[in-house]
Amino acid sequence: MSLCFSRNTAKINSPINFSAIVDPTEAIHRFLTYEETNEFLYTLALLFSGKVSVEKIGETALGRDINVININYNAKKKVILVANLHAREWAAMSSALYIISELVYNGDQYPELSQFRWMIIPMANPDGYEYTRIYDRYWSKNRSPQPNSRTFGVDLNGNFGYKWDENKYRVDPSSRTYNGPSAFSERESSAIGTLLNQHADNTILYVDLHTFGNHIFYPWGYTTDKAPDSGKSRAVAIVGADIIREKYQEYYTVGTPAHLFQRTYGSSLDYCHSVGINVCLWFEQTNVGFQIKENDIERFGQEAWAAITAMAVRANQIVDVFYPE
Questions:
Q1: Edge to edge, what strands does the sheet with 215-217 contain?
Q2: Whose CB among 106, 175, 219, 281 lies 3.0–4.6 Å from 227's, allowing a Cys bridge?
């Protein structure tokens, strides 16, 4: 699939100086900076104001904006996609930008997707991401100074407010998996948690996009016990894995984190399920590691596009229907 770009004109008040990205296809051919990513989002809102808006939902400890782009913002049913909770997972961010580009520029080709309001946070951890660009490519946490410690950062995917305190093993603040001094102690997880709560009733699908591992997880993460009504999430995850296998000959396993990986506490996946969202998934994309070449950005973007759009359609079909495992 190749993106074909066209333009229309509109006006929007934006804090961004539209200068760095002349060609919007840059967003799917190289890894953008934090500033360029925001510029790209606001450019889309400028050019497609009839269906695209950008909303600041929070601010990091270092003062960077946490932005969500809304596509088809008048639609009632919602799909929420979050990427880059872990700073080093650049391919998650670039795949989210690919999906944004395809929905905006070629959305008319997909009428089945236009019935959804797509709410996408391509860079959920901007402080951490910029740190990986400049200092440490394998940094994972955010960059908030930790109280009573000389360390920085919290694992954002362990800081959500469901079963956060179930982990009985103390995690040192210097550890990559440090889950914070309290649930929702971090501005990023708090902003996303608030978003999930606000839109839970009308959200048909939530996807937390990560790399790497070729897995699609459904709840629970914190226990091996079966989550209530998790059959819907499992059925949708299988659709995503099947289409990737069919189109790209890549094999994804489907299951819970507790069964396929390890018990995870305070994840966005479990929090999503706890607030009653229809289908909640944690998508671990690629099997090639945390670093991919820029000429592979489009390839992995296409893979994420195929899976997530198919899962959105399937999730919509089974709203309020339980499929037993």
A1: 52-59, 65-71, 116-121, 77-83, 203-211, 280-285, 215-217, 253-255
A2: 219
Domain tally, the chain: 1
Cα separation, 210 vs 155, in Å, equals 13
Residue 19 falls within a domain, yes or no? no
In a domain, 3, yes or no: no
pLDDT of 10 > 50? The answer is no
pLDDT score at 176: 94
Closest CA to 202 of 74, 55, 48: 74
Show the domain range for 289.
26-319
pTM assigned to the model: 0.91
What is the CATH number for 232?
Answer: 3.40.630.10
Cis peptide, bond prior to residue 322, ω within 30 of zero: no
74: in domain: yes
The tens digit of pLDDT for each residue in 19-52 reads 444 466 777 889 999 999 999 999 999 999 999 9
The secondary structure element, H or E, covering residue 76 is none
Closest of 13, 10, 73 to residue 47, by C-alpha: 10
Kindly report, residue by residue over 258-296, the tens digit of the pLDDT: 999 899 999 999 999 999 999 999 999 988 878 889 999
Per the CB < 8 A criterion, the answer to whether 43 and 11 are in contact is no
Catalytically active residues, by annotation: 284
